[in-house]
Amino acid sequence: MDPLNLTGLTGLSILFLVLVFLPMEKVFPAKSRQKFFRPSWFLDLCFFLGQYFIWGAAILWALSYFNFFLGNIIPQNFRTAVASQSWWLQAIEVILLSDFIIYWAHRLQHKWSFLWRFHKVHHTAEHLDWLAAHREHPLDTIYTVGLINLPAFILGFPLETLAGFIAFRGIWAIYIHSNVRLPIGPLKWFIGAPELHHWHHDIERDRGNYANISPLMDLIFGTYTCPDHEPEKFGIKEEFPKNYVGQMIHPLLPEKTSKKIMKKNLLGRLKLKKETENTVEPL
Ligand SMILES: [Zn+2]
Ligand SMILES: [Zn+2]
User: Which positions ≥6 away from 21 have C-beta within 8 Å?
Assistant: First the structure.
């Protein structure tokens, strides 16, 4: 896509998301005192722009390549057998399999430190809204999107057929991060809601709610949690850079180097705080 069209598309996407989510966040706020331009808004905007201008095309390329690679190793008669089923049965199979895979893949992101180093970028957000949904390391996105679409790729659904499904999942991912608490009653047992994902973003790394669209897998595997109030604090307990470039580069560094840098930063901040306190004139 040429730069002019891409800029137009990005502008339209921001406009669309603001028009859809801003009224919802105003009428049904999860945290009523949160402002539109809350802390780290600009950082999340960088992630949004990065996705549209840099990473989107790279991620799509990686997905197409992955799809092509699987196409060469999956036996054609298996795909023909799948395609001979009715479309609704295929759709149910794909949705259930994707939810199952992404549930366990997401649990692994929280458990295994190698995956957590990329996934924690997403969890550094201390304020959730429609924009914070875009805070994600591109390698973390490739992992998630690749695994969510794995069943559809194996069954042989072409990318064009999946486009609508991928777009729906994308909008859903933005919705569950929005600063919204909609009273949907017992429906919340069947479809995921922002409050479930908000609890997933609790400062405790293993709070639960790993599923994406439906909370079914969390209910089955015992990780469903939904207190009737919002978590006190979102984010992570670990030290991590608070700027875009730092958040992009840090997960790629060897763990020892990364820890060393963060320790140095923390000590520097504590020293600065102490100096500031000492220079304040007593009343
Ligand atoms: Zn997570
Ligand atoms: Zn999230």
Answer: 129, 130, 174, 175, 178, 180
